[in-house]
Amino acid sequence: MAKVLEPKTGKPEFHTVGRRIPKLDALEKVQGKAAYIHDLKVPRMLYGKILWSEHAHARIRKIDTSRAEKLPGVKAVITGYNTPEIKTGFFKDNPVLKKDKVRQFRDEVAAVAAESEAIAEEAVRLIDVEYEPLPAVFDPVEAMAEGAPLIHEDKDSNILKLPWKLVCGDMDQGRSQADFIVEESYSMPWVTHCCMGSSGCMAEFHANGNLTVHSPTQIRYLAQRDFGDAMKALGLKGKRVQVVNTAIGGAFGSKLDTYPFEFITILLAYYTGRPVKLVFSREEEFFATPSRQKVDARISQGCKKDGHLTFREVEMVLDNGAYTSWGATTPSVMMMPISSLYKVPNIYYEAKCVYTNNIYATAMRGYGNPQATFAIESQIDTLAEQVGIDPLQFRMINVNTPGEITPQGFQIGSCGLKECLESVRESLDWDNKKGKQDGRGVGLGSLIHVGGGARIYKSDGCGTIIKLDDFAKVTVMSGATDMGQGSDTVIAQIVAEELGVEVDDVIVVMGNTDMETWDVGAHASRTTFVAGNSALFAARKAKEQILDLAAPLLQAAKEDLSIKEGNVFSRSNPEVSMQLARVLRALHFKTGGTQIVASHFYDPPTQMLDREMKGNFSVAYTYGVHGAEVEVDKETGHVEILKYVIAMDVGRAINTMLVEGQLEGGAAMGIGYSLMEELKADQGKILNPNFLDYKILTFPDMPDITSIIIETEDQFGPFGAKGIGEPPLVGSAPAIANAIYDATGKRVRSLPIIPEKLVAQEDE
Amino acid sequence: MAKVLEPKTGKPEFHTVGRRIPKLDALEKVQGKAAYIHDLKVPRMLYGKILWSEHAHARIRKIDTSRAEKLPGVKAVITGYNTPEIKTGFFKDNPVLKKDKVRQFRDEVAAVAAESEAIAEEAVRLIDVEYEPLPAVFDPVEAMAEGAPLIHEDKDSNILKLPWKLVCGDMDQGRSQADFIVEESYSMPWVTHCCMGSSGCMAEFHANGNLTVHSPTQIRYLAQRDFGDAMKALGLKGKRVQVVNTAIGGAFGSKLDTYPFEFITILLAYYTGRPVKLVFSREEEFFATPSRQKVDARISQGCKKDGHLTFREVEMVLDNGAYTSWGATTPSVMMMPISSLYKVPNIYYEAKCVYTNNIYATAMRGYGNPQATFAIESQIDTLAEQVGIDPLQFRMINVNTPGEITPQGFQIGSCGLKECLESVRESLDWDNKKGKQDGRGVGLGSLIHVGGGARIYKSDGCGTIIKLDDFAKVTVMSGATDMGQGSDTVIAQIVAEELGVEVDDVIVVMGNTDMETWDVGAHASRTTFVAGNSALFAARKAKEQILDLAAPLLQAAKEDLSIKEGNVFSRSNPEVSMQLARVLRALHFKTGGTQIVASHFYDPPTQMLDREMKGNFSVAYTYGVHGAEVEVDKETGHVEILKYVIAMDVGRAINTMLVEGQLEGGAAMGIGYSLMEELKADQGKILNPNFLDYKILTFPDMPDITSIIIETEDQFGPFGAKGIGEPPLVGSAPAIANAIYDATGKRVRSLPIIPEKLVAQEDE
User: Per-residue pLDDT tens for B174-213?
Assistant: First the structure.
C-alpha cells in the first residue's frame, strides 16, 4: 500500500479520483476473456510466416520459391522481387522485403501465407536462398572508421545524419569554475521489452479495397498513416485504412513503430484476397523485435567546493543496428536528464547513432533516459565523494525547484524532487545506514521525465467523444491506447469524477481508428495527462449541456446546479434534486428531444525542440527518486536487494493502486536492467533469444517495493496529475549501483551489474 | 431503370444525391464476407435450443429434465420452474418460459445450452413433459363468444383492451349524402416474413456483470431496454446491456420486437457463464416467428353521383394469437388509409384484437396497411362501377392534394398522388385497355403511408455522430439500423452531398448501443427521413466548423466558402481553394490543434395520436399507385402478370437504384401476398413451415417492374426525401384483384387469390 503525501493545499473532496479502483479489464484478463492477437481467428484466415536472413551482411544471389509454392495449402510466397517496394522506419531505410542484400540476421527475405501455421513454417523452410557473404561490422566505433563496410551503400557514411547536439551556457566557464571534475565512461547493453504478448497482426482487405489491420500497436493512428504507404504501393491510394487494436499484452515501446512484418502481412492479405495473421514466436519476438540499443557514454561533471554543479558534458555512441526506427531518436530524451536533472548551468551533449550489422533499435520504456540517468547519477555519487558531501545532501544542494527554467528551456511547473529525496532519506534510514561499506549499502538515483506530453510529432493531441444514454451510462470514445497500464480505468475515473457518476457507469472505448478521434500514441508517459485532459474537457462540455438543459426542469439557475453520485442537484437547496438518468430521459423522450454528446480534442501547449534542441518539450515534468538498500555477497558477488523504495512526484494520483502498479512494474524492469538483463549477440546473431538464457526478474527475485506518492497538484494536469508510465524504471540502475558501491566500495560502470563484475579485481 | 419525374421547381445541382450508387455492402454480401448471426462464433460458445409445446392449449403437469441434464455436453437445462419469471411483449403477457400452461403450439416450455447444436437438439428430445390438454379456440369470433375458453385466465375476456376506434365527421350525414353505397367483407390470411436470415442471437455476460447481446434486431435500443428486464430478474439491475447488430438477413418487422428466445438465450448465458448462441432453423423461423395476422374486415363506402366519397366505415376482427406483440397495434396504421386515402369527410373505424390459441402476430412491412388498403381499394373499384365512373377517374375526383388536412388530422405536405395516377394511366395504356373483360385486364391500387417518421414511442428520434480524419475520410456513427434496405448507403450519400466529399470517403457505422446515439428502430419507413435528417444536420454542423476554421487559412470570409469534390473553395473567387484533407491537417497538426467532430439528435415534430386517435402522426406522407395488367387463364385460373408498374411519390430519390430496389422488392412481397402466400394452420398447428409448402414468389414468377419515381421535394425531408420502405407492397393486392376483375368479371375478396378461387362459381 503506497504512502501518499498530499499537496499542502489539501485534497479537494473527490468521489472517485484518488481511489484504489482495480483495472476495469482485470477480471476479463484474469478469466482469459480478453482477446489478444493470438486469440483472433476469422473465417478463411491464413497464417503468415517470414523467412529470416542467414547472414549478418550478404548479397542475395537468388531466391528460389518454387518448392514452397508447390506445397499444398500454401497460398502465396512473396519476396522483394515479386512485390512493390515499401520502405519503413524513421528514415525509410528499411525495405519490408529485402532485395539485393541483407544487413542483419533478422532481415526479412521472403514470406508465405498458408492454411495453417505448420504449413507456413514448412513452406518457409522450402525457400532456397543463395547468399554471397559480405564483410560485416558489429562495433559502432569500427563502423565509423574510414573504410568500414557501408551498411547502406547509397549513404557515404555509417553515421546517421541526426541533430543530436545540445550546447547550453559556456562550457569553458563551467569547467573553469569547477573545483572538482570527474570524467568516466559508462556502457549499457542491448535489452529487450519481453512483452508477454508477442508481436503480430492480422490484415484483411474488404471488397471495396479498404484495409483493416488488427494489431496490438501503441500507435494506431500513426500506423494507419504508415500503412497508407502499402496502399499506395498496391495502387489503392485513397482507400481507407482502419487499424483496430486487439488487447495488448505489453508493449513498452516495442509496438511504437510500424515494422516490415506488418507490411508483409498486408501484402500477403492483398495477394491472397484473404485475411492473414502473422504472429511472432517467442524466439522471433526476441531476435526480430527491435530493442533498447547499446550505448557507450563518456561523461564528465564538475562542481564547486560547496557542491554546486558547474557543468555536465556527455558524449555518446549509439549502436543503431542496420535500420532506423525510433531508437535513433532516443538522444532527444537523453538530453532531458543531461540538461535538466539538477540545476546545471553549462551543458554539452552530443550523440552519434551508427549503422552496424547488428539488430536495430527502437523505443523502450524511458526512451534513452535510463541510459543517461545511469551515467549521470552514478557519477554524481563519485563527485559528491570527491567533494566530501553526502550524496543525498549533494543532490539537495542542486535540487530542481518549481518555477525553474532549465538550460534546455524546460519550464518546470510542479516539482517534488526535494520531497522525494526527503522521503527516500527517511524510508531508507539513510543517515544511519549510509557509508558503512560492510557488505550492506544504500544508494539512490534521482530522475526527471516528461509528465505532460512530449511533442515529437506535429500534434501531441488526443480526441475524446462522450455520450450518455437514457440510463446515465457513459461511453467515452478515446483516441488513447491502453496497453495494460490501465488508461481506460484512469480515464473512466476522470470522467466519472467530472460527471458525478460512478466508475461502473462509464465504459471507455479505445482501439478503432474508424470510431475514435486521433491520438499520437501511447508513449512519453503522456496518456493520463493528454488523454486524461481530453476526456476531462469533453466531460466538462457534456456536464455543461446537461446543466443547461436541466435548469428549466429543476427550476433552478444553471450556475446553482451540479451533479454528484448520479443526481443533479441544487447547491443552494439540496431538496431540489433529480436522478441524472431521469433528467436525461426527460431531455430525450419528448418531441424535439435530444441526447447528450460532447467531444474535445486536447493538444497540450508543448513545444517541439528547435534546431538547437531547446524548447519546453512537455507541459509538466515528473520527478522521482529510487532508493535501494543492498547486501552484496563478497565471495559470489550476489546482490540481494533488502529494501527498494520509489518516491515519485505524480502531481496527483488518479488511482493510487495503478500508480503503485506502475512503480512496482517499473522497478521490476529497472532492477532487471540493473542486475541481469542483456541481449547477447555474437557477430550480429542473438545468442539468447528465450527466457531461459535471457534473464528477467521473476517473482522470487522481486523485492517488496515501498511506494511513496508525492502529490504536487500540477496546474495543467487533469485534477493535477502528471504522467508516470516510464519514470519508475529510470532511476533503478544508479540507485542500485550506488548502493553496491556503498556496500563494497566497488564502482561498476557497465550494465548489467552481474556477480562476475563484482568479484572481479577492477572497477568496471 | 426507373423513370424519374423531377419536381417542377427543377433539380438542384447535386453531386451525389439522386445517383445510382450500389449498396455499400453489396460486394461484401455477394462475396460472403458479411457476418450474419449464423456466422458468429466465439471461443467457449455454447448452442441453445428450445423445446416447443406439443399442444395448442394445455396444462403443464410436469417437466422432467433429468435425462437431458445427464447428456454429456449439456451445460444447462432451464424451464419456467428453475428461472425467474420474465414476461415480454406489448402487454407483458408472454412469459419467456411457460409455467402451468401452454397457449399455442409454439410455446417455449424448456431450453438447453450444450457444446454443440447436435447435443442441444438431442437434449431437447430428452426432456419429458406431461400435459393435460385444455379446450382451445382458433377462431377469433368464437373466442369472443360467451363461455369460450379463456386464453389468459387472469383476464375476463379474450378481447384485448385496446383503443382502436376512430370516428371523424358525422357518419349519419355521410350515409345520407351518399347516392351509392357498397358494403362487403374482406379477409386476409396469415403470412410471414420469410427472411433469408432466420432469427437468432448470441448472449454473453462479461466478468463485471455487463451483458452483450449480438442480434440482427431492428430495434437495438428498445431491445437494450427490454433486456434490462432480464437483468433485473437476475439481480443485475444497473449493469450495462450492450446490443450489437450482426448483419441482418432481412427483417420486415419480424425483428421489431423482443421475443422469448432472446431472453432464453440470456438466461442460458447467465446460468452457464459462457456465450450462448441460439438460431432458429427454417422450420422454427416459420412457426415460431410471429406473423402478419389474419384479419376479417367489413367495409362500406358511399359516394355521391359525381363520385365524391361521403363516408367510409370499416370494422375489423384481428386474430391476435395467444400473446401480444406489435401485431395488436397495427390498427393504428390501418386507420391511416381508412381515414386519409382520398378525401373522405366521414369516417368510422373499429378493430378488435382477439386472443386465440393460434400463433401470435407481430409487425410486418406495411403494418396493417396492406390489409386495409386491399379492402378499401378493391371496394373503390366496385363503387366506381356502380356510379359508372372509370375507377381511375373516380380516384382523381377524390384525390389527395398538398396542403390538405385529413379527418384524422394528418397535415399533408408534399403529395404526388395525382401524378402517380397519371403516370400509371399512361404506363398501363389504361384508357385503351380498361374494361375489355376478355381474359386480360388492368387494375390499380393507390396508397398512403407515413413517410416522415411515425411517433409510436416517446421519442421518434435518431442520433448521429460525425468525425473527419486527416485524410478527409468521414465516419458517420448512426443510431439507425440497416437490415438490407441500404440505409448506410443513403446516409453516406446525404453526408457526402452536404460535406462536399465522395461517397467512397464516407463510412456509416451502425449497430452498437455502446457507440452510437439512440434511435427508435428501423420501422415505419422512417430511416431515410429521420436518420437521414439526423445525419444531414450533423454534417451541416461539421461543415460549419470546417468553414469557420478554414476561413482564416484561406483568408476568406466564412460565408463565401463552400466545399465541393473534396475542396474548400471561395464561391466568389474560385482560385482560392484548398483540398479539404489539407485544411483538416492544417487544423489538426499545430499546437492546440483540433479534429472535426459533430453530432446531432433529430426528433421529428411528429405527434402521438391522441385518445381519439387523431393527430399529425408523421411529418410527411408517401403516396403511390400500383398498377397491373394481367391475363387470367379461364380454365386453370392461373394469373399471369403481363405488366406491373409502381409510381411512387418519394419526395426525392436520394439513390434511384435503391428506390428501384425497394419498389421491386416490395412488389415481389406484394404480389406474393396477392396471389400465393398463406401460412396455413390446423387447430393452431402450422401446416406448411417450409419453402416447399409455403409459396413465395421466386425469380421466374417475378414480372418486370416498371418503376416511376415522382419527386415532390418534401419540405421537411433530407434534400426533400420521404420514406419508401413499406409502400411498395401496400397497393399490390387491390391492383391485382382489380385487374383480375377487369379481366374476368370475378371479384375475389379474400387473399391470396389462388387459381381455385378464380375457377370457383362464386365471388370470394
Answer: 999 999 999 999 999 999 999 999 999 999 999 999 999 9
Which CATH fold would you assign to the domain A295-455+609-759?
A: Aldehyde Oxidoreductase; domain 4 (3.30.365)
Locate the chain A residue with the closest alpha carbon to B476: A515
Distance from CA of B329 to the nearest CA of A (A): 21
CATH number, domain B37-134+199-279: 3.90.1170.50
Instruction: Write the residue in B469, B518, B595 that is nearest to A469 by C-beta.
Output: B518
3-class DSSP assignment, residue A175 = helix
Of B589, B605, B606, the CB nearest to A458: B589
Nearest CA in chain A to B26: A207
Q: How distant is the Cα of A754 from the closest Cα of chain B, in angstroms?
A: 43
Scan residues 185-214 of A and list those with Cβ closer than 8 Å to B.
Answer: 206-208
pLDDT at A760: 81
Look at the domain A461-602 and name its fold.
Aldehyde Oxidoreductase; domain 4 (3.30.365)
Question: Lowest mean pLDDT: which of B31-35, B111-115, B461-465, B736-740?
Answer: B31-35
Min Cα–Cα distance to chain A from B281, Å: 22
Closest CA to A518 of A616, A600, A597: A600
Question: How would you classify the pairing of strands A211-215 and A295-303?
Answer: unpaired
pLDDT 10s digits, A174-217: 999 999 999 999 999 999 999 999 999 999 999 999 999 999 99
Give start-end residues of each CATH 3.90.1170.50 domain in chain B.
37-134+199-279
* Residue B43: Cβ within 10 Å count: 11
How would you list the strands of the sheet with B462-468, edge to edge? B506-509, B474-478, B462-468, B597-602
Predicted ipTM of the assembly: 0.95
CATH 3.30.365.10 residue window(s) in chain A? 295-455+609-759, 461-602
- Taking only the tens place, the pLDDT of each residue in A325-369 is 999 999 999 999 999 999 999 999 999 999 999 999 999 999 999
CA dist B168 and A557 (Å) reads 46
Query: CB distance from A346 to chain B under 8 Å?
Result: no
Contact (CB<8Å) A591/B504:
no
Average pLDDT over residues A238-250: 97
Distance of alpha carbon A750 from alpha carbon A764, whole angstroms: 6
Alpha-carbon gap, residue A243 to A202, rounded angstroms: 10
Minimum-distance CB partner of B591 among A470, A593, A603: A603
Minimal Cα distance from B601: which residue of A?
A594
3-state secondary structure of A612: coil
On whether any CB of chain B is under 8 Å from the CB of A518, the answer is yes
Judged by a CB distance cut-off of 8 A, whether residue A610 touches chain B is no
3-class DSSP state of A327: helix
**Residue B532 neighbours by CB distance under 10 Å:** 29
